[in-house]
Amino acid sequence: MLAEDKININTTTIADIAIYPERSAPATVVSLNESTISALIAAQVEALPVRVGDVVEKDSLLAKLDCADYRLSARESKANVDGLKAQIELAKRRLERTKKLTLKQSVSEEILDERESELAVLNTELRAAEAKLNMAKLNQSRCDVSSPFRALISERTTAVGEYANTGTALLKIIDIDQLEISAQVFSHDIKQIEDSNELYFEHSGTRHPLKLRTASPAINTETRNREVRLLFMDGPALPGAAGKLVWRDKRAHIPGDFLVNRDGTLGIFTVENNLAHFIPVPSAQAGRASPTSIPIDTPIVIEGHFSLKEDDPVTINN
Known about the structure:
Order of helices and strands: EHEEEEEHHEEEEEHEEEEEEEEEEE
Strand content: 35-45%
Radius of gyration: 40 Å
Shape: elongated
Helix content: 10-25%
Oligomer: single chain
Largest sheet: 6 strands, antiparallel, barrel
Number of helices: 4
Mean pLDDT: 92
Structural class: alpha+beta
Low-confidence stretches: none
Strand order of the largest sheet: 2-11-14-13-12-15
């Protein structure tokens, strides 16, 4: 074949022209703890020292309930316990005297049994009174409502002066330290995210590095998506912030400019023994970069490829 019959082309390797595009999916910052703080006792709300938007540390005072009734109850229970202890001491002395008299046969066995029974009853009453005192102390400690974690006050659901029953909601708080990213991802993208070492949450022009915690094994029946949960690598974004999960696809993609259509199939041309050879690229889309499993050191025709046919003789100019 004459040289002038050959088609002039230029080639390079897939590695030289491959791109690794970024992908994204909608994502939101979620708190692991969005809690409603409720009253554990029935009492009037005496103080609410926090306001919506405040950030409080763990164990900070959130609400103060009127504790007068519970202080009185605790005092009454303490007095009852002290009284029973005094009775028990007296009963012990009486029992000891009765035992001595019994040895001398000065009193009957029935009286000894009565003394022992009297002491046993008092000890039982003391245990019940101590339990009541502990409950009174516990209720008294519940007059001050504290934050279980470092939190953002998101809502006040009651007001000073209102009467709160047991279980009445006082405030709503959000844990601002235990945060995660929740993203809904197409099932076929899960493997890319698991393999990627570049994961980001993008919000208001800022990117936060992430690491994957888990990908849900369940598929949403409505959207056919899977949820992924990710952790912040540095300072987190604000709870509730909406943005997108961004990751880089580690698969080599052939730019759409180098794809050609032959017999309804998109692919690339390479060169074997100075002859053009067409390699289909499955799932390729016209004009778009397409992932490929072809080895990246494979030579690809980047100029002159639009006019090529299978087994066309070529001259490589590069």
